[in-house]
Amino acid sequence: MSIRKPPAMGVLVYFAITFALGLYFTFAAVQGDFGLFRRAEIEAETRALEARLEALETQVARMENLTRRLSDSYLDLDLLDQQARDVLGLMRSDEIVIR
Fold this sequence. Notes:
Elements: H1 9-31, H2 36-69, H3 77-88
């Protein structure tokens, strides 16, 4: 009859520690500061900021166009008339204001 010996405690501790480290590194690779979820968040934020930048660049180009059209070297009288009406609240003497 052979007597069966229980496995050595060192082997169980080794496998437990190895398993715990594997779980830790897997969790860190997915949820950590540099994990997959954080990378997806950063990429989504990048796309949103690029869209915002494009909208701002369009707005700046429009403002530059309006500024150039009101400059001394190139004066757009229709734009000047519109700005005087909008900003200063001016109107011509032959116009009627309806509120």
